[in-house]
Write a structure and sequence with these properties.
heterodimer, A: about 450 residues, alpha+beta, Alpha-Beta Plaits, 10-stranded mixed β-sheet, 6-stranded antiparallel β-sheet, about 30% strand, B: about 120 residues, 5-stranded antiparallel β-sheet, two-stranded antiparallel sheet, 3 helices
Chain lengths: ~450, ~120
């Protein structure tokens, strides 16, 4: 009988539902074949913040969510041979692996084996000048800035190497998200580097699973147009993959959500640019020949992804200090509310300029489609909407000077006694920012440092 | 062929926006496959660029996927700097799929609008 590999997703971003993995594991334990659970919890910003934490404490810098995501499922996974593959390692997979052992001891789990993948962190083998000299393809100019983090998107091979160590849990740092799925498939099926169409199908499966509920009706539902049942109990996805690369996307049993052609197509194109050339370290994916077929309730079968050789370079996300983002809000309601909000906007802008704030300040009025507008509010100024209603003033500034961010917020606060009538609901925030750039590094520069090793308690 | 009506794209298609740097991609997926030729005709690079020009958009690349069917739109410089430097509340431009769906109109036969849709009333 043909082997089927089952891979479920427990999280699609750092901040995803903490209990989503539980029904996924409940379903996986009934599946007849190798089973895996992935957690994708790393963004560019998350990684930079984790690097800063690691600089202060070398034992930390793994995901601050590690305990929360794993506590509810680690024992059930160990007992049911569901292997966990996750980038919960963030900036410190080794530290994360040690923490998994501590958690296992707390939960009374015996003989848990954990491995970590290393080699993505350029700061461990390149100096800042070398990194700063790499060609930028996207984002801010980084030359001359203090680099907080520089991590290459490594591929699925080191993940497969880690699984070959016969461990229960694999923690990685910066791999491609799809590698969390392709790694187990390479391990199970032995797909070689030249089996490009198989690698393409595996990468497509990874792309569909990596955002968790985004393929099962999450971030999809539009009431009356695209209805999804049971969103409060959204079932996270499970991929079923066979050696010939055939994929079925389905979801955990006894949950809400929906797997349909429409949910799968939206996720398939999510953050894809040229659909014939989606670059990954393992394969260049072409989805222009992929076909979808209904294969029972909440089951979509996908075939036809094509693979071409991967690029000679790897993408690296470089992060630098981005200063501060200050935001403040005040709400106006009832008759003439828009006129009062407009006056408030004018007062704040004039006072900030008069008092030496030189960075750009954006002033939105929420309730006027502010997110569709631009920094100059051209759309709002051009429309003639009714003045009555509910409108929320919102200011934003980016600055390297934290005091300036606080100053703008305080000008909004002062509207209470010195602004237009009837303002309320003041809120403010000043948040540290990370700026990122994407640069390219030759594969061999990174790959000689990539590998996997078991971490003992 | 049923009567032709002018409706927002939202009446006949759905989509999702994603970001990479200062570049947005928005998928456009018809509810009914027979609508797709109308979308290919009318959801043009030029019309899409005009919708996002006020944000600084500089170019649109359109990819037509007959196999799904769906259109993928890649809009350069649409995100006011993107997550690094935008002052917009929505740093990633996640809401922009609904700017496109709500403000780009298409001329389609009534039958392209799913039965039960409020756009058929």
């Amino acid at each position: 009988m043909t082997k089927t590999v089952y891979i479920g997703s427990g999280a699609g971003f750092a901040g995803d539902r903490l209990d989503a993995a539980i029904p996924v594991v409940e379903t996986l334990r009934t599946c007849d074949g190798p089973r895996y659970l992935i957690f994708e919890v790393m963004g560019e910003r998350t990684l930079a913040i984790a690097q800063r934490i690691k600089m202060r404490n070398p034992d930390k810098g793994y995901s601050p969510y590690l305990d929360e995501y794993l506590r509810g499922v680690l024992k059930a996974c160990k007992e049911n041979s569901v292997r966990i593959v996750s980038n919960l390692g963030n900036a410190n997979p080794l530290g994360g692996a040690k923490r998994v052992h501590e958690l296992a001891a707390e939960l009374g789990i015996e003989n848990l084996r954990v491995a970590c993948v290393h080699g993505d962190d350029l700061l461990t083998f390149m100096d800042a000048d070398e990194i700063g000299a790499l060609p930028t393809i996207e984002g801010l100019e980084i030359t001359g800035k203090e680099i907080v983090a520089a991590n290459a998107y490594i591929g699925a091979r080191p993940v497969a190497d880690a699984l070959a160590l016969d461990v229960d849990v694999v923690l990685v740092g910066r791999t491609t998200d799809a590698a969390l799925v392709l790694g187990p498939l390479i391990h199970e099926f032995g797909w070689g580097e030249d089996e490009l169409d198989l690698l393409a199908q595996g990468t497509l499966c990874g792309h569909l699973l990596e955002c968790g509920g985004q393929v099962t009706g999450g971030y999809f539902c539009d009431p009356g147009f695209k209805d999804v049942p049971g969103m409060d109990n959204l079932g996270f996805p499970i991929g079923e993959i066979t050696a010939n690369g055939s994929i079925v996307i389905t979801k955990a049993a006894n949950t809400g959500g929906l797997v349909s052609r429409a949910t799968v197509i939206e996720q398939m194109l999510y953050e894809v640019h040229d659909p014939a050339n989606y670059l990954t370290p393992d394969v260049t994916l072409d989805i222009t020949g992929v076909t979808l077929a209904e294969d029972g309730e909440n089951r979509i079968r996908l075939e036809g992804a094509k693979g071409k050789a991967p690029p000679e370079t790897l993408k690296v996300t470089v992060s630098a200090d981005g200063g501060w983002l200050g935001e403040a809000e005040m709400i106006y309601a009832g008759p003439n509310a828009l006129a009062r909000a407009e006056l408030a906007a004018d007062i704040v802008t004039k006072r900030c300029r008069k008092n030496g704030i030189t960075d750009d300040i954006r002033v939105d009025i929420v309730g006027t489609s502010a997110v569709f507008d631009n920094d100059a509010s051209d759309r709002r100024r051009g429309d003639n909407r009714p003045l009555d209603g509910e409108f929320r003033l919102r200011t934003a500034i980016r600055t390297m000077n934290k005091a300036d961010a606080k100053y703008v917020n305080d000008e909004v606060l002062s509207l209470f006694c010195s602004g237009p009538a009837g303002g309320g609901g003041y809120r403010c925030n000043v948040m540290g920012q990370v700026n990122t750039a994407s640069v390219l590094v030759p594969r061999e520069t990174v790959e000689t440092h990539c590998g996997a090793s078991e971490v003992k308690p | 062929m049923s009567e032709t009506v002018t409706v927002p794209l939202h009446a006949v298609a759905h989509g999702r926006a994603g970001d990479k740097g200062n570049r947005s991609n928005i998928s456009v997926v018809p509810y009914l496959p027979e609508t797709f030729p109308f979308l290919v005709d009318q959801v043009t690079e030029k019309r899409v660029l005009n919708l996002f020009r006020h944000k600084g958009a500089s170019a649109v690349e359109r990819y037509v996927l007959q196999n799904l069917p769906a259109i993928n739109l890649v809009i350069d410089d649409a995100l006011e700097g993107g997550v690094n430097s935008a002052l917009n509340q929505d740093l990633h431009g996640k809401t922009l799929s609904f700017l496109l769906l709500g403000e780009l109109t298409v001329d389609v036969p009534v039958d392209c609008i799913p039965i039960g849709s409020r756009y058929r009333a």
